[in-house]
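anyone seen this seq b4? input:
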Amino acid sequence: MPLVRVVLGSKSDLAACEPARQVLEEFGVDYDFYVSSAHRAPERTAALAKNAAAEGVKVIIAAAGMAAHLPGVLASHTVLPVIGIPLASGGLGGLDALLSVAQMPPGVPVACVAVGAAKNAALLAIQILALEDPALSGKFLAYKKNLASG
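predicted toks r here
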């Protein structure tokens, strides 16, 4: 069963999100992966969030550019933590997406990483999961020690 659900707003976001997939695989964290637009497929997108907990998912990562409503829409339909990855697209270089993800209204929290920081989104998901998984916590500690020595 997947512990992390990764949702992209568009197929064009695949390359930008590859680092998240690589990190999840490196740590041995099961995940599933969907492309579902908050605007073009709102019912499907809502279902991905509404059904996630029952499917064993513990954390959702959502990546979108431009208006970047996807992380907020997913968060509005679940009690699971949602991590938003604003992506650089359109004419504003990702600033619009960053502001959209970071400026959520009270009661609908979304964690926000830097523009294009898919790797950090996956690492944050791993840190959340590691709170309940000592083996994963050990892997993350080793990762951090490796960063310090490199």
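The chain has one domain: 4-149. The chain has a mean pLDDT of 96. kinda curious what u guys think
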